[in-house]
Every structure is written in C-alpha cells, then in structure tokens.
C-alpha cells in the first residue's frame, strides 16, 4: 500500500521502481486537476501497472469524480497484456481487502478476435468476418426472418438479444478469451456482449480506433460517460492515427467499383419500387424524423461529436434534392462523373477544399449542402434497400464519406490529384488524395469530452511538440528516466568507417559505395562479437533492398552468415511473421541471428526484442520520411502556417521519434541489456541528439559521439563483457528497486523528487 | 614385404619418383611404389595416413600426382609415359578419390577418439607422456588394447554424440575461382555436399534421380552451379533447367510455411493490428506498388535475393533441428499442394494459439544464481543411501593396508608416506607407479605365451621394462638418494619388476629346454 500524496494505492508487487513512484505522483496531480497530461517513461519500467494501480485507486476513493477508465493501446497483444496486469491488480485487491471485487473490466476487439460462431470465425480476415456477421445479424435481415424462418441465423446473437441485455456481465476482469469462454457458456455473442457492457464497465481496454476513428467511434464509443479518464498508451504515433482516420484516397479502380455499386443500387430501387413502394415512402418520412431524433439526443450532451456528422447538420432536414432514392442515386452518378473527369488530368493538381467545392458547383452544379448529407443519406438508403453485404458497397461508402468530409471542413485538409506515381511517370495511375493535415481535428472531440486524457509512451521526446500538433493544453508534462543499478544500455554513434569515410544515409551519399561497404563491415564486425540476436533497421524498404543487393554482390552477407543466420523483413506481413519466428528460434537455440528491418515498418512498431532476442540494435541512417511526397509537403506547410512549427523541426522530430522507437525495441526492462548503435554522423549533432528520449540521451557520453567502426567494436566488447556478469536482485535493491520501507524513507523521497525534477 | 598377398587394384608403369623410374601400385589399403627392376617398395603409404591428393593443373608439361600425409610430408609421383601419362594419372586419381574418403573417415574417427580419451582422462594423458613421448613403448602398443576396450564396452557413448548443425555460410565456402581461361572452378568437398543435401532436400532428390543414370556427378554439380537455383538473383527461368523444379518446390514449401502461420501471437504481424483502416482510407504512404508489371528487373531481383536469404536461413535452421526425421515428409507435403488442393491448405482450421504468457521464458542471471544456490543446498544435505558397503573408516583402513607402505605391503616404516616425502616426489612416484603398472599389465597379459606373436611381444615387453628401469626408475632413485630420503620408497616397484624378470627367466629357460 503506497501513499501518493494522501491517496492510498494498492500496488501488487513487493518492490517498486523509483520512477514508478514519480509517475504515479504526476498522474495523480493530473487527475486532481481534471486536466490532460503528457508523460514519458521508458518501456520496461512498469508504466502499465503504475497507470492501472493509481487510476483504480482513484476510482475507488472518488467514484463520483472518475467513474471509468478507458485504456487505449495499439496492438492486440498489448491489449491482452494490459488486461493481464489488471487481473493481477484486482486479485491483489481482493486479497488485501478481503472483499470480493466489484469492478467490471473488459477488453474489446474486433469481431475477428471475438466471434465464436463456428462458420464466421473460421474466416480469419477481419473484413470478411464483419461482412458475414452483418449478413446474419442486421436488423432488417432479422425482420425478414419473421416471414421466412429458413434464413440463416446466428443463434449467439439471438440469444444475447433475447436474454443477455437484461443480465449485466458479472463483475470481474475479462480478457478476450474470457469473453469468448463466457459467451460459449451462455450461448451469447461475446462481441455484442462486450460492446453492450462497455457502458457500465469500470475499465475498458481497446484499440485507438474505437475512440479516434469517427466511423467506428460513432458506433462503439458514443455513449461513454464524460467522467472518464482516457489513456493513450504507446502514443508516440497518435498524430498519424488521427490523420489516417480522416484521409481518403480515390483511384480509378475505386471509381469503377463505385460505378457498379451505383448501378446495383439503381436496379434494386427499381425492383423495390415495383414490389414494395411503401418502403421507400417510409424511408422518406423516416429521414426527416430520424435525424430530428438524433438532434434531440445530442442536446443532452451524451454523444461524442462526430466529425463526419458535424453539429449544424442536425439542425436541418436532409435537403430535398437528395431526399428520394432516385434523386440521390442520380446525385451520386453526377458526383461520380465529376470525380472521373478530375482524374483525367495529365499534371499534378493541388487545391484546397473551398476551391474543390467551387469547382464542383461550377461544373456539375452540386451544392455544398447535399454533399454534406451524402454519407448519412447513403447509410439510410442501404438500410432501406435491405442490402445484406455492406462490404460489397465499400466503394460507394468511401465516396460518400469523402463527399461529407470535403464539404464539412474548409481547413486542415488538402486535395492532391496525381496522374501517375513519381517513380513511374509513364504509367498512368491517377489517384485523388484527400488528406488530413491536422491531427487535432480527429482528437479534438476526445479532449473536449473527457475530463482527463493521458498521453504516454516510452518515447515522446520532445514533449512539447505533442500538445502543439494535437492542439491541447496539458496540465502536466514530464519525462521520467530509468534509474539503473548498472548501465544496461550503451548508445554509440558511429560516424566514420575505419577508412574515415563519413557514414550517413543522406540523399547525396545514398549510392556511395564506400558508405555501403562501411555499413556492411559494421554489421559484420558486430555479428562476430554480439551474442544471440541483432536487429538492424534501415531508413526505408527501398534503401534496404539496395543495400542488401550491394552486400550480396560484395560477399559481405556471406561473411556475416558465418557468424549468424540472416532474416529480412519483406513487404508481405505473413512472410515477415515467419521470418520473425525463425529469427527467434535461431536466437533461442543459440545459433544467433540477424534481422534486417525497416524503420516505420510493422516490426519497428509492434515487436519487442527482449533479452537475447535483441542484444544489439543498429540504426543505419536517420529515418527521415520520404520528403518528396506532396502530401507531406502540404502537411509541413500547414504545420508552419497554423502551428508555427518549422518544417525541419518537424521532420527531425519525426525521424528521431522513429529512431528512438527502433532502438528502444531492445531494452524492455532493467535486467535486460543491449547496445544501441546509431550509424550516421548526423546523430552527433545537438539538434538530433537532443530530440532523443532522456533515458537514452543521458547515456551518450561525449566520447562516443563520432566513433569509427573499430572503436565502436572495442566499446561494445567491453560493454558486453560487463553485462555478462551475474546481476542479482540485491544489486538493484535500494537503487533502482525499492521496498516499501526504502520508499518511505525521507532520504529516498528527496532523491526521487530530485531525479524527477531534472526534467 | 608380403606385397603380393594383397589385392592389387591398379598398376601403373613408368612412374617416376625422385627422378627414378618405377611402378606405382594401388592396393586395397595402401599405395606403394617400387623402382624398376627391384622387387621391393621404397615408398609405401597407408591410405589411412594420407590426408589428400593433389594433381598438377591440366596445362602443365609435367603430369604429376602428389600425396600429402597427415604428418605433413608429401610424396610426388611423375607420370612419364609419353602416350598415356594423362590417362594413367587420371585413372590413379579416380581410384584414389574413391578410396581415400573411406579411410579418411576411419582415420579421423580413430584420431578423434584417441584425442578425446586423452583429454578426458588426465591420468591416461600422463601415462601417454611417460611411456609414448619418452619412447618407452610405441604409440601403437600403447593404444593396442585401449581402443578395443572402449569400442566394445561402450558403443552408445560414441553414438550419443550431439548432431552437428550446418554452417550458415556453407554456400559461401564454395568460393568460385577463375581458372585463368574464362571459366570458374568451384571447390566442392564432401562436407559441403552433405550440407547442400541436408539443407535442400529437393536437390538430393534430384541427385538420386539423375546420378549416375543421366548425368555424371561432375555434370550434376556443374549444372547446379549454373542453374538459376544457385544464383537466385538471376531471373531467367530456363525450362530445361533440372533445378527449376527444385526452385518451384522450395517456393511451394515457403508458401506453405507462410500459410501455416506462426504459433507465437507476439510475432504474428497479421493479427497484431486490431482494426485496420478499410481500403481507401488513410494517408497513402506505401510507395512501392505491389503489381509486378511496373517493377524493374533490378528491383525484382533484389526482392528475390531477400526471399532467398530468408528461405536459406529457415532451411539451415530446419536442417539443424530435423535430426533423425527424414526430410522426405516436407517434400511430400509440398508435392500434395498442386492445383486445386491448394485450397485445402488455405482452409485448414486455424491453429489454436497458445496464450500470451506461454511465451515468457527467459532465465535471468538471478534465476541462475537461485538455482545454483538451490543445488548447493541440496548437495549439502545429500545423504547417500547405501546398504551393502563398508563404512568409510574400514574402507580407508583397508586401502591404507593395501597401499605401498601398508601392513600388507610389508614395508618397514609404518609412518604414512605423505608425511615423509615432499609432495613433488610423491607426484613423481605416483606417475612411476602408473607407468610401471601399465607396462607390467602389458607384460603379464602375454602369459600364457602360446603364439609366436606373443613370444615376440613378451620379449619386447621385457626389454621395455628394462628400459623403463634404466630411464625412469634409476634416475628417480638417484634423485631421492641425493635428497637423503629413504630408498625403499621404490622398493616395492623394484620388487614388482624383479618378479616380472624372474617370471621371464623361468619362461625363457623352459623354452630353451623345450627347444633343445
């Protein structure tokens, strides 16, 4: 039991790290102030359990202030890990207090991970599962079943719908598998059960998209209480998630598919008109009334404001021009023709949303207002026409979402039409990019709605940039370092080859043979001295392909193979997964392996290389984003004009956060150890180095700023020899690991606050 | 020498050695050469002693064949028959090529075994030094009955050896060398071939199919190195290439591995993401388009290299862990997946994935320290539960009585030897005892002497014993005399030797009597 400024916190472990204490302190202050916070603490220092223990304690003590914790993480394994930690905490609670636990905590994931219907769950691909589920459970399908009982049915959903809603999920901690077990026992659909239970659960763990993507948030997270604490864990990429959820790309293929969709719609309308004309009339009436109902609900302030469905839309009825089904289809056709004509360009076009709207009005007389209702109108039509497989209509849904977005936002978006890819100017492949440049648009409703939002990750440096690009005012910002009994990380900046050639991945020297050769010899030398696993990251996939080919020709790879097996990331996720598994197998059985991978790739974002799976990580070059992209240029301009962030600052920030992500993959705890090699002379500059997280930065000594390959090898040998010595728990105690008594001593508290205030 | 009783496999005339004409004989177990006109061999090497053979390059005037022995010595034969020198040489070479590996393995195995025994047993090593290095007896004599013992006694021991994996770089070891005239030479050893077969079972299949019915071994490997299969960065797929099928099968294998998916959910990139954006949403950052048509040749060759490395590493890893299991099942698995049966691979029920926490096993140094402590603790409290043994006191008194200086050894002093003499002398004495014991063992094992071979051996052993007394025992006696130590330290040793000598005399006199 810890005392955090008067709040008694149950902590389920015997020992605590000093930084966990500081973290909880800062977190409590944020909650007290009912504000938002940005907190950086290295991975492997128990961030998750600190967050959970403090917020649960807060919830228990002030149930009226904070009634729900919404914990957002990025990947499914991470979500499951959080729930397991939570389970540990809850078990500890009931052991300490002797009462049975009355908290309900659950994880939510997509149907793919929760479905227990034997046929549907065998599909494995997310979209197919969703589509199939929809064909069994959509409301009008179920209505049809009343007249035709032979239609297929999902008995899990039916049973849940019949009984499940009356019986709330009993208190406890439910991971994805627990939900499935519970569902199987009761014959209820775990997915809808979880979604339904979201409303009264005390703790919800799910993925970012359920809160940030308006298309999903509207369905799932609409009614969550305002008195919630929202945590975004691993949030270093949150701006990109926001932008992705608001951007649309339209290619010629999309338009072709859309064309078929529209024709199907038209035929269906024709058919319905002949058989059941009243349906369409009812829809016409419902359209006016339905939107009014939504309007009423909105005024009571329980709904999340939806960027696709902006505020003012609800004050009015759907415009008369698209109110009937035929008119709407005609409208869609015109819009489609217009888009087709726009894609027929021969040069790159870039314009703002008002320009686009003006052009569309001039050319095909489409007003802004009906465009705004497009998405809502389509949804209503699909419902009326009782179309089972929504997945087939993804193209037309995409187009109407685009219509709504483009007519709603006059700022923060840009439209770029590229007739061909930059690298293949002879092949026509026109794409219309409607791209969001302002991450704050998607996240704004979250900040406005919930009383506390915590943004946290192992790598958030420099801290001040996140509040600027996400446009919010945090009450606390802190970066915690990792207290260490032994220096278990060894960052080295290798700036030169043994022949004094400057090493860099910058554009001018990218093809330089000397650089490629020196990179090769760095990897080769390291493969000879580092035990078990080495992970190497390249700045882009193209760059890696070229270097691997050059190394192959020069026989460098063959020499490396004498020491370790080589595995390489490919653009294909399944292939890479297999390579990863083999890589781990090779590390496990002592043969040792090297994984060549790409910054910003799937591996760098989601895979941890604990202990022997990663004893060294080499970052070849500075992972700048591909700067020639027009979308990026537009975004940089926007950042400069709106947020006064200079282009170079942002690019460097972006490159360094990815570099930090990559090298941070190898240190996942205090007993872990690993080399971090930055192989580019530009890392030595203060403006780059200064943007690394504090827990890495403080271990870069002045002597290791511009090493040659040989020097780096010498230092590494020394480091590895030291790290191979036995490391006892007693060595950590009192320094980087504290018992309760040690924590409560006056002297230690002073020391902790001293460390924390260096920020 | 009894050369003619051996089976002669090949006779080559007109072979010069040290500028002397003569004839080369290749026999079942050795190669020999005798100068012209004489009926004895001046050169004779056992195949087992030969490390390798070397031949002179094709273009050279002198056509030679060189044998390199394990000892490092070498013998060169010059084939001087004008008309058929090259043919003769090649015939000899071919035969040697077949013979040498057989003996090589045997020789290596024996050598390894001997080495291992010496390394594992320090007493034996000391004995070896005392007796063989100082040339009291020859190495052959020393090993004569030792190796036999171990081989019969414990065959499981040698079988139990850990299987050796495959070097990841075995293909790199086949460094092609230019032979000067627009060609490449690959050095291929038996080890590399085995590695290739173990790593790429499909190649082995091809080998069994084609060699020697369709192709010679040499042709097979030439084609292998020329094939696109070996050079993955080349993308021309010739249909006449026998290896294109291998490549296809490999690709199938790789595909089926990929389709099978991974067991560890932590590395499964496909199920990592919870909710991916639908098609068409998101900022378009994927630069390389997936359609193959607009990829340049260079790019697809690059990605072929990458695929190849992944596949190669996976196969090497698999070959290491495959052990006894035949690689055939992998092939049969892939051969099933033709045409429409591919779907069945696709729709196999999803593998039940084990829970996350099943994948956390790593022994930290703290764990190791803990377990060592635990074992130490266990050992301290260990009480052997033995029923039919002497108590330790009786056992040690019995040992004392039986040791030299003990009651049963009738030595004068009752005082323990270890208090009287410096430890260095003790050590030396111990070695002497061991050496003498070994020699005496050899000596006594000759009785009863009933074959001429035994007679010969017993005489030799007697002289060995005498030599031992002269070179080892006497210097030691002088040494202890110089240090004024009691001389009867060696009394027992001498006694033992004397017993042996007298036995020898008795045997000799009896033999004389019988002869006369």
UniProtKB/TrEMBL annotation, chain A:
Its cofactor is [4Fe-4S] cluster. One of its GO terms (cellular component) is nucleus. It is found in: Nucleus. Keywords: 4Fe-4S, ATP-binding, DNA damage, DNA repair, DNA-binding, Helicase, Hydrolase, Iron, Iron-sulfur, Isomerase, Metal-binding, Nucleotide-binding, Nucleus. Its EC number is 5.6.2.3. SUPFAM superfamilies: P-loop containing nucleoside triphosphate hydrolases. GO terms for biological process: hair cell differentiation; nucleotide-excision repair; positive regulation of mitotic recombination; transcription by RNA polymerase II. GO terms for molecular function: 4 iron, 4 sulfur cluster binding; 5'-3' DNA helicase activity; ATP binding; damaged DNA binding; hydrolase activity, acting on acid anhydrides, in phosphorus-containing anhydrides; metal ion binding. Residues 6-282 form the Helicase ATP-binding domain. It catalyses: ATP + H2O = ADP + phosphate + H(+). InterPro entries: ATP-dep_Helicase_C (IPR006555), DinG/Rad3-like (IPR045028), DNA/RNA_helicase_DEAH_CS (IPR002464), HBB (IPR010643), Helic_SF1/SF2_ATP-bd_DinG/Rad3 (IPR014013), Helicase-like_DEXD_c2 (IPR006554), P-loop_NTPase (IPR027417), RAD3-like_helicase_DEAD (IPR010614). Belongs to the helicase family. RAD3/XPD subfamily. PANTHER family: DNA REPAIR DEAD HELICASE RAD3/XP-D SUBFAMILY MEMBER, GENERAL TRANSCRIPTION AND DNA REPAIR FACTOR IIH HELICASE SUBUNIT XPD. This is General transcription and DNA repair factor IIH helicase subunit XPD. It comes from Cyclopterus lumpus (Lumpsucker).
TrEMBL record, chain B:
Component of the 7-subunit TFIIH core complex composed of XPB/ERCC3, XPD/ERCC2, GTF2H1, GTF2H2, GTF2H3, GTF2H4 and GTF2H5, which is active in NER. The core complex associates with the 3-subunit CDK-activating kinase (CAK) module composed of CCNH/cyclin H, CDK7 and MNAT1 to form the 10-subunit holoenzyme (holo-TFIIH) active in transcription. Interacts with PUF60. This is General transcription factor IIH subunit 1. Residues 99-147, 180-232 form the BSD domain. Its main location: nucleus. GO terms for biological process: DNA-templated transcription; nucleotide-excision repair. The keyword DNA repair applies. SUPFAM superfamilies: BSD domain-like, PH domain-like. One of its GO terms (cellular component) is transcription factor TFIIH core complex. Component of the general transcription and DNA repair factor IIH (TFIIH) core complex, which is involved in general and transcription-coupled nucleotide excision repair (NER) of damaged DNA and, when complexed to CAK, in RNA transcription by RNA polymerase II. In NER, TFIIH acts by opening DNA around the lesion to allow the excision of the damaged oligonucleotide and its replacement by a new DNA fragment. In transcription, TFIIH has an essential role in transcription initiation. Belongs to the TFB1 family. Transmembrane segments: none annotated. The gene is gtf2h1. Residues 327-343 have a biased composition (Polar residues).
């Amino acid at each position: 039991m810890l005392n955090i400024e008067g709040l008694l916190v149950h902590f389920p472990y015997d020992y605590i790290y000093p930084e966990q204490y500081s973290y909880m302190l800062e977190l409590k202050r944020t909650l007290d102030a009912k504000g938002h916070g940005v907190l950086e603490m290295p991975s492997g220092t128990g961030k998750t359990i600190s967050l959970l223990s403090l917020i649960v304690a807060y919830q228990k003590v002030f149930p009226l202030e904070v009634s729900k914790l919404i914990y957002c993480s990025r990947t499914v394994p991470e979500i499951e890990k959080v729930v397991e930690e939570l389970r540990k905490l809850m078990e500890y609670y009931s052991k300490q207090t002797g009462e049975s636990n009355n908290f309900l905590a659950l994880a939510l994931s997509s149907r793919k991970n929760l479905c227990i219907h034997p046929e549907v769950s065998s599909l494995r691909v997310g979209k197919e599962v969703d589509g199939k589920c929809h064909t069994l459970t959509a409301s009008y399908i179920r209505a049809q079943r009343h007249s035709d009982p032979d239609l297929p049915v999902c008995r899990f959903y039916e049973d849940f719908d019949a009984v499940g809603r009356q019986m709330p999920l009993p208190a406890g901690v439910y991971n994805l598998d627990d939900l499935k077990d519970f569902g199987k026992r009761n014959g209820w659909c775990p997915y809808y059960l979880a979604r339904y239970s979201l409303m009264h659960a005390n703790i919800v763990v799910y993925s970012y998209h359920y809160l940030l993507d308006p298309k999903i948030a509207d369905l799932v997270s609409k009614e969550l209480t305002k008195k919630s604490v929202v945590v975004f864990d691993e949030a270093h990429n949150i701006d990109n998630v926001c932008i992705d959820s608001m951007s649309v790309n339209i290619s010629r293929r999309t338009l072709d598919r859309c064309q078929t969709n529209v024709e199907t719609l038209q035929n269906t309308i024709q058919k319905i008109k002949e058989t059941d004309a009243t349906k369409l009339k009812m829809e016409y009436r419902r359209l006016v009334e339905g939107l009014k109902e939504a309007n009423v609900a909105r005024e009571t302030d329980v709904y999340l404001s939806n960027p696709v469905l902006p505020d003012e839309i609800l004050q009015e009825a759907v415009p008369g021009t698209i109110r009937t089904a035929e008119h709407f289809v005609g409208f869609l056709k015109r819009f489609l023709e217009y888009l087709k004509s726009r894609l027929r360009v021969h040069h790159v076009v870039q314009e703002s949303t008002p320009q686009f709207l003006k052009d569309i009005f001039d050319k095909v007389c489409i007003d802004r207002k009906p465009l705004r209702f497009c998405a809502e109108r389509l949804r209503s039509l699909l419902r009326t026409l009782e179309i089972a497989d929504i997945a087939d209509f993804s193209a037309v849904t995409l187009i109407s979402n685009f219509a709504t977005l483009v007519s709603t936002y006059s700022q923060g978006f840009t439209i770029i039409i590229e007739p061909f890819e930059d690298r293949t100017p002879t092949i026509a492949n026109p794409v219309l990019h409607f791209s969001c440049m302002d991450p704050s648009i998607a996240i704004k409703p979250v900040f406005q709605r919930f009383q506390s939002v915590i943004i946290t990750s192992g790598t958030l440096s420099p801290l001040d940039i996140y509040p600027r690009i996400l446009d919010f005012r945090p009450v606390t910002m802190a970066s915690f370092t990792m207290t260490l009994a032994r220096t278990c990380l060894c960052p080295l900046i290798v700036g030169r080859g043994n022949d004094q050639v400057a090493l860099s991945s910058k554009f001018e020297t990218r093809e330089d043979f000397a650089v490629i050769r020196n990179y090769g010899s760095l990897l080769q030398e390291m493969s000879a001295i580092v035990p078990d696993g080495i992970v190497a990251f390249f700045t882009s996939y193209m760059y890696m392909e070229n270097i691997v080919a050059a190394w192959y020709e020069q026989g460098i790879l063959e020499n490396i193979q004498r020491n370790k097996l080589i595995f390489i990331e490919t653009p294909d996720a399944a292939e890479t997964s297999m390579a990863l598994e083999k890589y781990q197998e090779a590390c496990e059985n002592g043969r040792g392996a090297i994984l060549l991978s790409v910054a910003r790739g799937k591996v760098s974002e989601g895979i941890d290389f604990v202990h022997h799976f990663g004893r060294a990580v080499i970052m070849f070059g500075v992972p700048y984003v591909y700067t020639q992209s027009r979308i990026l240029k537009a975004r940089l301009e926007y950042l400069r004009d709106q947020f006064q962030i200079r282009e170079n600052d942002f690019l460097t920030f972006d490159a360094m956060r990815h570099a930090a992500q990559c090298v941070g993959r190898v240190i996942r705890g205090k007993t872990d150890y690993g080399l971090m090699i930055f192989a580019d002379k530009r890392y030595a500059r203060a403006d780059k180095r200064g943007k690394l997280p504090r827990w890495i930065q403080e271990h870069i000594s002045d002597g290791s700023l511009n090493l040659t390959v040989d020097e780096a090898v010498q230092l590494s040998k020394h480091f590895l020899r030291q790290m191979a010595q036995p490391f006892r728990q007693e060595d950590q105690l009192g320094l980087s690991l504290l018992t309760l008594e040690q924590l409560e001593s006056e002297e230690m508290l002073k020391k902790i606050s001293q460390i924390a205030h260096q920020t | 020498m009894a050369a003619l009783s051996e089976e002669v496999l090949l006779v080559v005339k007109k072979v010069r050695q040290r500028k002397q004409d003569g004839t080369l004989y290749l026999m079942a177990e050795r190669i020999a050469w005798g100068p012209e006109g004489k009926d004895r061999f001046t050169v004779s090497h056992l195949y087992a002693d030969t490390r390798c053979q070397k031949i002179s390059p094709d273009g050279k005037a002198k056509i030679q064949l060189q044998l390199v022995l394990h000892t490092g010595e070498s013998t060169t034969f010059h084939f001087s028959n004008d008309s058929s020198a090259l043919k003769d040489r090649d015939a000899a070479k071919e035969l040697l090529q077949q013979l040498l590996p057989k003996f090589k393995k045997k020789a290596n195995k024996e050598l390894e075994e001997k080495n291992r025994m010496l390394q594992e047993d320090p007493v034996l090593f000391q004995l070896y030094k005392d007796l063989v290095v100082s040339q009291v007896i020859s190495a052959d004599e020393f090993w004569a009955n030792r190796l036999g013992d171990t081989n019969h006694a414990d065959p499981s021991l040698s079988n139990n050896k850990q299987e050796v994996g495959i070097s990841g770089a075995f293909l790199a070891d086949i460094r092609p060398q230019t032979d000067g005239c627009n060609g490449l030479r690959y050095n291929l050893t038996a080890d590399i071939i085995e590695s290739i077969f173990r790593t790429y079972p499909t190649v082995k299949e091809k080998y069994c199919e084609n060699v020697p019915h369709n192709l010679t071994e040499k042709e097979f490997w030439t084609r292998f190195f020329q094939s696109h299969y070996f050079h993955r960065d080349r993308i021309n797929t010739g249909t006449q290439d026998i290896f294109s099928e291998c490549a296809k099968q490999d690709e199938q294998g790789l595909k089926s591995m990929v389709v099978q998916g991974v067991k560890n959910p932590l590395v499964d990139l496909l199920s990592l993401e919870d909710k991916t954006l639908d098609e068409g949403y998101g900022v378009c950052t994927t630069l390389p388009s997936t359609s193959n048509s607009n990829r340049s040749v260079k790019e697809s060759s690059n990605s072929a290299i990458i695929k190849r490395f992944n596949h190669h590493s996976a196969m090497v890893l698999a070959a290491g862990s495959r052990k006894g299991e035949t690689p055939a099942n992998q092939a049969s698995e892939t051969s099933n997946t033709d045409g429409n049966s591919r779907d069945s691979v696709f729709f196999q029920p999803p593998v039940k994935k084990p829970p996350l926490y099943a994948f956390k096993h790593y022994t930290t140094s703290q764990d190791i320290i803990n377990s060592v402590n635990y074992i130490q603790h266990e050992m301290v409290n260990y009480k052997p539960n033995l029923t039919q043994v002497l108590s330790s006191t009786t056992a040690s008194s019995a040992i004392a009585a039986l040791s030299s200086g003990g009651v049963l050894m009738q030595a004068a002093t009752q005082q323990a030897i270890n208090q009287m003499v410096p430890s260095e002398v003790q050590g030396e004495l111990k070695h002497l005892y061991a050496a003498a014991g070994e020699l005496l063992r050899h000596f006594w094992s000759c009785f009863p002497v009933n074959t001429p071979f035994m007679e010969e051996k017993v005489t030799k052993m007697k002289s060995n014993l005498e030599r031992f007394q002269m070179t080892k025992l006497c210097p030691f006696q002088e040494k202890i005399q110089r240090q004024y130590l009691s001389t009867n330290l060696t009394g027992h040793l001498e006694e033992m030797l004397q017993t042996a000598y007298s036995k020898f005399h008795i045997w000799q006199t009896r033999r004389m009597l019988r002869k006369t």
